Amino acid sequence: MKEINHDVVIIGGGPAGLAAAIEAHNQGVDVLILERNSWLGGILRQCIHNGFGLKIFNEDYTGPEYAQKFIDEVKHKKIDYLLKSTVIDINKKKEILVVNSSGLIKIHAKAIVLAMGCREKTRDQAMITGFRPAGIFTAGLVQKYLNVDGLLPGKEIVIVGSGDIGMIMARRFTLEGSKVKAVVELMPYIGGLIRNKVQCLEDYDIPLFLNTKLVKIFGKERVEGVEIVETKDGEEIEKTRKRINCDTVVFSTGLIPENELSEKLGLKMCAETSGPIVNGFMETSVKGIFAAGNVITPYDLVDQVSMNAMKAGKNAGLFVSGSLIKQNININVCPGENIKFVIPQRINYLQDVNISLRSNIVSRKKDVALVVDGMVVERKPIKIIRPSEMVSIKFNSELIRKFNGKKIFVELVDKI
Amino acid sequence: MKKLTCIMCPLGCSLEIEGDIVLGNECSLGEKYAIEELKNPKRILTTTVSTDGSEMLPVRSDKTIPKKLIYLCMGQLAEKKVKLPVKKGQIIIKNILNTKVNIIASMDMVD
């Protein structure tokens, strides 16, 4: 088996991996990106819509344009990368086992950045039983069929779940001549961004059914229709039960971080984020192994992915050069009332840190607050908080010094 | 009074428009959007065109296009077949439907 050495090895060549690689390289260390697909840029290749880069570049890029900026920089900086190379194992000694057409390679790394991203939830996670006819897809898969392969998967579509990709694909299907007959959402609010409800659904008069459950998929060989029913407090409202005829059902019910490697490696995981627990350095429970982007939890925007990946990449570079110094700080950050999760979950150094969070509720009457021993120590006013939009609150170094050793809760509190 | 949701960025501000006065916008983009949206709604068009290679080329309009012309643009783009290689930003259709808007490639593509 071939054995090679690199300072920082990045697992995944999507938006997180590229941003991490560039920042690690900027610290003067030698970097290698491992990507299992045949291109760099990951999912952005098929996200042909615009809305990327508003935060980082103050520009409205399409997915491929956004990716190209990072790919160009990786190539300009002559950062090494291997395509069509799949990582099958990582251990705590930072040995990485990769397989590609040349065979098995063992890579000895000084630091690792996990940037494996997410995969889609499927029909199984949506708990829809029944036959297995043709015509059932996930939103990301039809996005690849349409935008990369130029294939139209169906003519009459029902989309289950109102995530961003689902709504964006509703518009794509409509523009390409298919009829989207319904977008069905179990929750009382949409899963994606409000702007996508406007520019993807309302612009094209695509009906959205909130508080509505997909009950059944009809058809044995090919999908023939679906049965839906409205719900109230979990109970099905019988008179709203109806059938919609369609030949295609698309599931857009969310993403799951791809963490098989992290789990095998024995990283401490967070149940709420489905990703590894990280500290303010974006370092996991194993020293020198960092996590970047959607492998931590699905972010709303690629800009947020790039920003946290830059942090992970930079710190991986600093770790290798020995300049990443942990101060004697140990704070646990925990989700409090109405908060689904917080990132990072640990703080080990005395420096301002932005804590990202997602709420469980929609409210115009709450502020985000840091709470220690039942006392609000920091408060950030929020106009409206929604589960579909991540927000962040600054935890400044003064407070970190003051509350070292304590448990900090992030909570939603009533506006004053 | 008219109500709109701003689509200029992921914030999605709720706008209220009374004559020339726009309320509820967090930034100047919101004001511009609201006024234009009531007169002549426009959108960036993103889609794909065929190539002489094996994959579709992602393209976009370099400026916003009147919403009512979107389907006509799609029709014209359906006819188009692009010869590779292509560089990001390369013009695929110049001045589409006399809108002074160009359709440009979203990425570098070699066969």
How would you describe what is shown here?
The complex is a heterodimer of chains A (416) and B (111). Chain A is of the alpha/beta class. Chain A contains eight helices and 30 strands. Chain A is globular. In chain A, 49% of the residues are buried. Chain B is of the alpha+beta class. Chain B is 19% helix and 32% strand. Chain B has two helices and ten strands; from the N terminus they run E-E-E-H-E-E-E-E-H-E-E-E. Chain B has helices at residues 28-39, 70-78, and strands spanning 2-5, 14-18, 21-23, 42-43, 46-51, 57-61, 65-66, 81-82, 91-93, 103-105. Chain B has a five-stranded mixed β-sheet with strand order 8-5-6-10-9. A three-stranded antiparallel β-sheet of chain B has the order 1-2-3, with helices on one face. In chain B, strands 4-7 form a two-stranded antiparallel sheet. In chain B, a hairpin with an 8-residue loop joins strand 1 and strand 2. Classes of the chains: A alpha/beta (416), B alpha+beta (111).
- Indicate the low-confidence ranges of chain A by residue numbers: none
- Number of alpha- plus pi-helical segments of chain B: 2
Structural class of chain B: alpha+beta
Mean pLDDT of chain B: 94
Number of helices of chain A: 8
Brief overview, please?
The complex is a heterodimer of chains A (416) and B (111). Chain A has 416 residues and is an alpha/beta fold. Chain A contains eight helices and 30 strands.
